[in-house]
Write a structure and sequence with these properties.
alpha/beta, OB fold (Dihydrolipoamide Acetyltransferase, E2P), 6-stranded parallel sheet, 19 strands, binds 5'-deoxyadenosine, binds iron/sulfur cluster, iron-sulfur, iron, metal-binding, EC 2.8.4.3
């Protein structure tokens, strides 16, 4: 790259999933590498990059509003160039391409999910007065992991192992904007993990739309459980992954929740619905019974495992009986957390053409009932940790009180604890402390920092 952005500032607005957040870290890494300074707000930024999501309609609408509102925003004092450069990337960029600049003429750059690396070049041309820069590719030239990264936290890293998705769940737009599934080689992934361990990273989260099918495009081997073993071998303290498709979760992976030192006892296993009829219409390719069998096996391998899920309410044709099947499944599993979504019609997906006459209020009422249950169950699951000592990876001070540290337990629960005299929560960020849990709330645990020898290690894994 010949030019630099050395006296320029940028900010990134990220919507959607962890993959997008990670892509944003790569973009920040590139722009910082070219001399630009990352800032928090659009007011201070000479360049604003939107990393977008189109999984549900709400995010689409929000993006349009946010880009439109930049139109008349004054430049910062001493701005490097005479106007603000605005770029839209990620899933909406991929889906809409040029159409975006027709709707938002003050937009400078549109890029897609397969060409993050082109952003600096496109920005440069836009700054140079070459007009709208639109580049959307059908598939990836290189893995975005070839790009530098500016991680949000020095002690935690996201590590993409696959990109794209081959599943075509009937409601989902992702396969159309992220392309077919591609796995990185095991050597590449392990080399990146090793580099993170050497740099002092304590937690790695492997990313993919469906991590369980890792390796299938590499002629079936290595598989995801081989990859888990290899990453564990790097000496990383904590290992997590997301997301898992139930149809591809193997016994080998389940077993590792009981055996692998670094694999944390928490799994996000989206069920989407508890009704076999709806699961079939969603093209999920598992049954309610199969899912419950997986849960039983997971609990056998790792009795204290924390489970979380995604559920869609109001899929076209969902009846009260279908919804009750979902409700009962949530009661039965007892998740620590469930992300609940109202079905959102996505043009171009198979489900978009299914007729549905269920009134909006009926769907909303089901949704509210489910949210209540999810909260009860979250509270209930946390009660079992009361009195236990858990090892917490500190993230910093809690939002409300700088004297209280916030971090994550092995089960990925948020934990708050008062810092000891003479210590600061910010200084502890990235280190482990043991916390005795005094109070268990719906969305967090609160406790007291205790000495290492009070037995935290014992409650770590399974
Ligand atoms: N409407 C509502 N929710 C959706 N999701 C994916 N597509 C849709 C849609 N069209 C949810 C699924 C997925 C999560 C990331 O978003 O539950 O697991
Ligand atoms: Fe979408 Fe299904 Fe792929 Fe997940 S597995 S990204 S829900 S198509």
């Amino acid at each position: 790259m010949h030019h630099t952005f050395s006296d320029m500032t940028f900010c990134i607005r990220t919507f959607g999933c962890q993959m997008n957040k990670h892509d944003s870290e790569r973009i920040a890494g590139m722009l910082e590498g070219l001399g630009a300074l990352q800032v928090e707000t659009s007011e201070e930024a000479d360049m604003v990059v939107f990393m977008t999501c189109c999984v549900r309609e709400a995010a689409d609408v929000r993006l349009m509003g946010q880009v439109a509102s930049l139109k008349n925003l004054p430049l910062r004092e001493g701005a490097a160039i005479g106007r603000r450069i605005i770029a839209v990337g990620g899933c909406i960029g991929q889906r809409d391409g040029e159409k975006l600049t027709r709707e938002l003429p003050h937009l400078d750059v549109v890029f897609g999910t397969h060409n993050l690396g082109s952003l600096p070049k496109l920005m440069e041309r836009a700054i140079g007065g070459e007009g709208h820069q639109i580049e959307v590719l059908d598939s990836a030239e290189t893995f975005p992991t070839d790009l530098p990264t500016a991680r949000e936290h020095s002690w935690a890293a996201w590590l993409p192992i696959t990109i794209g998705c081959n599943n075509f769940c009937s409601y989902c737009i992702v396969p159309y904007v992220r392309g077919r599934e591609k796995s990185r080689s095991l050597e590449d992934v392990v080399a990146e993990a090793k580099a993170y361990v050497d740099a002092g990273v304590k937690e790695i989260t492997l990313l993919g739309q469906n991590v369980n099918s890792y390796g299938r495009d590499l002629y079936g081997a290595p598989r995801f459980d081989d990859l888990l073993d290899a990453i564990d071998g790097t000496g990383i303290a904590r290992l997590r992954f997301a997301t898992s498709h139930p149809k591809d979760l193997t016994d080998g992976v389940i077993e590792r929740f009981g055996t692998l030192r670094s694999l944390m006892p928490a799994l996000h296993l989206p069920v989407q619905s508890g009704s076999d009829r709806i699961l079939e219409a969603m093209n999920r390719r598992y049954t309610r019974d199969h899912y419950l069998e997986l849960i039983a096996k997971l609990r056998k391998a790792c009795p204290d495992i924390a489970l979380s899920s995604d559920i869609i309410v109001g899929f076209p044709g969902e009846t009260e009986k279908d919804f009750e099947d979902t409700y009962r499944l949530v009661e039965e599993v007892g998740y620590n957390q469930v992300f609940t979504f109202i079905y959102s019609k996505r043009e171009g997906t198979p489900a978009a053409s299914i007729e549905d006459s269920t009134p909006r209020e009926v769907i909303q009422e089901r949704f509210d009932r489910l949210v209540d249950l999810v909260q009860d169950k979250a509270w209930q699951s946390n009660q079992s940790d009361k009195g236990k000592t858990v090892e917490v990876l500190v993230e910093g001070a809690s939002k409300r009180d700088s004297g209280i540290l916030a971090g994550k337990s092995p089960k990925n629960q948020t934990v708050h604890a008062k810092v000891s005299a003479g210590q600061s929560a910010e200084d502890l960020a990235g280190s482990f402390v043991n916390v005795r849990v005094d109070e268990a709330k719906t969305w967090y645990l609160a406790g007291t920092v205790v000495d290492a020898d009070e037995g935290a290690r014992g409650s770590d894994g399974c």
